[in-house]
Every structure is written in C-alpha cells, then in structure tokens.
Amino acid sequence: MSTKTHVTCIINGDETDFLTEDGESLLNALRDEVGLTGAKEGCGTGDCGACSIIMNGDLTASCLVFAPEAQCSTIVTVEGLADGDHLHPLQQCFLEGAALQCGVCTPGFLVASKVLLDRNPNPDDTEIRYALAGNLCRCTGYDKIVRAVKEAAVQLRENGKVQA
Amino acid sequence: MTFNPGGLPVKYFSPSTIEEAVELLSSGPNRRVFAGATDVVPQMRSGRPAPDGLIDLKGIERLISVTDTGSMWVIGAAAPTVRLTSNPAFVASFPGLAEASGLIGSDQVQSRSSLGGNLCNSSPAADSVPALFANRARAVIASGAGTRTIAVQDVPTGPGRTSLAPGEFIIEFEIDRPTTNSGDAYFRLTPRTEMDIAVVGAGARVDLDGAGTISSATLALGAVAPTVVRVPDAEAALLGAALTNGAPSDDVLAAVAAAASAACNPIDDKRGTIKYRRHVAGVLARRSILAAIARASAA
What we know:
The structure holds two protein chains of two kinds.
Chain A: E1 5-11, E2 14-20, H1 26-34, E3 52-55, E4 58-61, E5 74-76, H2 89-96, H3 106-119, H4 125-131, H5 143-159
Parallel strand pairs in A: 1-5
Antiparallel strand pairs in A: 1-2, 3-4, 3-5
Chain B: E1 11-13, H1 18-26, E2 31-34, H2 40-45, E3 53-56, E4 66-68, E5 72-76, H3 82-85, H4 88-93, H5 95-102, H6 107-110, H7 115-120, H8 128-134, E6 138-143, E7 146-151, E8 156-158, E9 161-162, E10 169-176, E11 181-189, E12 200-208, E13 214-222, E14 229-230, H9 232-238, H10 250-263, H11 274-298
Parallel strand pairs in B: 1-3, 2-3
Antiparallel strand pairs in B: 4-5, 5-10, 6-7, 6-10, 8-9, 11-12, 12-13, 13-14
C-alpha cells in the first residue's frame, strides 16, 4: 500500500490541493493530479525548460521539484498568464508572430519570458537570449521567439502593465 | 511515471532543524539529503539506484540563509544560487564567486542549484568550486557527533566522491571577509556562451598589501583533473610580486601559466583534448589572476 502525501498550495491564484506519491515530480502532479497540462516534459532533467513554472517568485524547472515540496508554495503556470479570455500580450505576440510550430516548448518560453519582462520591461536581444537560454525549441528557431518577446515588451510598456 | 519506477517507494522528508535532519539521515539504510535536486533527479532518472528517503534541506532556515556577519560571509549550503547572484552586497564582496555560482545551469536551475550541491556532486567541472577553493572557503559539516569545519578543498576526493562520512552533510560555508584590498575572479571556457559544461575553469583570488604588492594569491582549476585542484606553484610565483601598471611582470605571469598547465591531469573527451585543456588552463589562469588583481586594485 502506498501512502500519498496531501499537498496544499496556491496555483494561479487559487488555493489548490492534491494527493501525490513522494517521489513524483511536481510537473507530473500538476499535469496528472491538478489537470494543468500546459507545462510539458521535454527532457525530465532540467535542461530544456518545457516544464518551466514560477514557484515562489522564481522561474523553476518543475521536473526537478518533488511534488511534496510544493506544500504551502505559490505557483504560476502558463495557464495563469491569460486574464480570462484575454490572452497575455506575450501569448498574443507569439501567436501573431508565429513564434511557435509544434508548441511543446511554448508554455516554457512564455513563462520564462514573463519572468524576464516582470524583471526587465525593456530587454535587448542579448538579454532576451540569455534569459531564454534555459528553453530549447527544436522547430521554429529562436528569432521569431525573440521578436515576439520584444513586441510584447513594447505593448506591455505602452499598457503600463509591467510591474515596477 | 515516478522517479523511481519499480523501486522502493521514495519517502520525502522536510525537517525544519539540523538535529531532525541528522536523525532522519541516520535512521534509514539509503537516505540522502538534497537541496535543489538538480543532480539528484537526473541521476535517479538515469537508472542509478534511487534513495529510499530524500531529506529536503531547504526547510531549515540556517541552510538557506546568506549572511554577512561582519568578519565573514556565511552561506547556507542549500541556499539557491539565485540568492547569491541577486544579493548586491555579496556580489560586491565576491564577484568571482557570484559569477561562478551564476553559471550553474539556466535560470530555471538557478532557483534550485546550491553551493552545497555543486560541491558534493563532486563534478571536476563544477563552476562554483574553483571559486570556493580560491576564496579559501570552509565547509561546516553536521552529523550525529555535532559539527566540524574543514577547508572546502578537502571535500572532493574524486568524480562523484567526497570525504564526507555516511551521516554527514554540509550545512553552510564560511568565507572570511578580506582585511586588505582583494579581488576574486572565475573564468571558464565553454563552446557555447550558456548552458554548457566547462572545458576548463579557473578561479583566482588576490590580496594586495598597503604598498600594492601581492600579499596572497590563490588559484584553482576545474575540469582538468579528477577534482578541482589548487596550483601552489602559481601561488608561490605571485606571492610578493610587485605590480607595474596593474600587473605583475611578464615573467611572473608566464610562471603562473606554466604552473597551471603543469598542474593539469586532464582527460581526453569530446569537450577537449589533454593538450588543449593544458594550454587553456594556462591562458585562463593568467586571465583570472589579472582580473582578480584589477578588482583588488579597485577595491
């Protein structure tokens, strides 16, 4: 008999709880127990960034986190970016700029880009590329992604929505 | 899929005190402490025998604290490296160690990776370790017998191996605040600019006396031997060296580079040949010493 651990945390602003095996990854718990399948498993070893989430304010590879570690934490996943039916400017710019093809890496890029723009509302190309170095894309290439992030940064600055 | 398919169930523990962690570590046959698990998870996934108990050290406040006591910095062994790189006072004190710490993986990993994990994983290429050696950092180790403090350079004994006994774990690092003008630096060579493993790494620390001569120098190299290594012959060549236009003489720098190349006992692999690593070790030794001197002169 396996005993599961009960985890309570805040995910995308909502208090959430789930049961998990101790050795389970937070990524799998989010996907299979909470039903948030935005974060993806690319490598499972912290190299590709497809599983990126924001955990207690820090960009984090959720495949490296044991699910019980989420106890009392605050988590933002890609599902938390949109405001109701309104896509986040990053999401809109990725769509309009065709900054995705197969889409597996996209949630991770969006989350990592949000962390970047929250910290630096006006990044140059180099800063964007360094900030996204932990995210791998195997189909579209990076130029469209960098351009989409720059365009989203422009819109966010105009909207005054970026946190100081 | 869990990290431990088909194996014994992994139990997760989150102690809030060192005493609790000591007790948990010794009360099972195959228990392991972890901080960010950035090495533990890939190891478990690669099929290495999984521990049956994982003890998360991040719930212990002292192990995630980064504190300037006035005479030294005390860095919790499990503190995420992003807490070092985003701490302006720490970066100002030890820019080289901060830069080295910031090179461990991506931002997604920086929120998890720790100096304790980077040291105890004992990769010869671990980026923070030459900078810890260079700054003559000490490791405070806890066990059922209490705590003991040893030089960081006495921790790694080979790839994946350390001098820690079963039941021991590092709780924090101590680095003395410099009493003279000092500077540190870390340089590494990687084929890519990010997300890569050092072909060679070099950590340097230089202290200057009131007259502007070198009163102490420490040089450590990564990825060129089974463990990170100090280069005593280079340190001896620098000791007492006078600076002209902010640099020691060409003869002294040549001796530093030669000593660094000679201290290497590297492997041939896809990242670099033995000959290349020896050469690059000399180049990076010289650059890291010059960078440390420049910072010491500006301090």
